[in-house]
Specification:
The protein is built from five helices and nine strands, in the order H-E-H-H-E-E-H-E-E-E-E-E-E-H. Helix 3 crosses helix 4. The chain has a seven-stranded antiparallel sheet with strand order 1-9-8-4-5-6-7. A two-stranded parallel ribbon has the order 2-3. It has one domain: C8orf32 fold (Roll), CATH 3.10.620. The chain has about 220 residues and is of the alpha+beta class. The longest helix has 17 residues, at about 75-90. Strand 4 and strand 5 form a beta hairpin. Keywords: Signal.
């Protein structure tokens, strides 16, 4: 129990970047339409991600011929669960201070690290396993305690899923209880965008549901 508490506490203390006020909270529509995260206005990349790309250029390369979503098949679910569980277990949680010491940065597969190290390691492992890099996006969020945090967002044909070092459970982004700040670009892994919300409208919506959805979009 103490180990789990230490794991959560240290991981939450580790911040990733200044979080701008232009953030979108997860929500569902009155019609039940599926919402996926989308890229809104361009945003500054976290400084440590810029340094990470200099150190690991292969993990910041992009191939526009790749799919930007993966099919959520049983084998994919198994791979995501195993990767999330294994990386969470293999990296011991510590608090890192990012400052003048240029030796401190986001690292793939360290023995000990913070939320940033967990997220980039999971992305690296999934790319090695054959998943398209375009479907694997790092995302800066804010926890309910208003603390900056980094997670891995996996874009699938059934919605966007969150791989998080604070929980062994893979959740949809709507159920993560986070405030979504910015997300890595799906077309260029070096770029970042503010988070927007994109609604996939079911084709069989009745007129009342369509009116509700239209009113909701206008309000946004």
């Amino acid at each position: 129990m103490l180990g789990k508490l230490l794991h959560s506490t240290l991981s939450l203390v580790a911040t990733v970047a200044f979080v701008s006020p232009s953030a979108a909270r997860p929500a569902t529509t009155a019609s039940g339409a599926i919402q996926t995260l989308s890229e809104a206005a361009p945003a500054l990349a976290p400084f440590q991600h810029v340094r990470f790309c200099m150190r690991y250029p292969h993990d910041c390369s992009s191939d526009l011929e790749q799919a930007d979503r993966v099919e959520l098949s049983p084998s994919t679910v198994k791979l995501l669960e195993a990767t999330n569980r294994n990386v969470n277990a293999q990296i011991a949680p510590i608090q890192k201070t990012y400052g003048a010491d240029l030796k401190v940065g986001w690292t793939i597969g360290p023995k000990a690290g913070d939320c940033n190290d967990y997220a980039v390691t999971k992305r690296h492992r999934l790319i090695e396993s054959g998943l398209p890099a375009r479907a694997l996006r790092l995302s800066v969020v804010r926890t309910p305690d208003r603390i900056g945090h980094l997670v891995l967002l996996v874009s699938t044909t059934d919605g966007d899923l969150v791989l998080d070092n604070l929980t062994p459970t893979i959740r949809t982004w709507q159920n993560s209880d986070y405030e979504w700040i910015k997300v890595q670009s799906s077309t260029d892994a070096r770029l970042w965008f503010d988070v927007g919300r994109k609604v996939a409208e079911p084709a069989n919506l009745n007129s009342r549901a369509l009116a509700q959805l239209a009113a909701q979009k206008t309000a946004k």
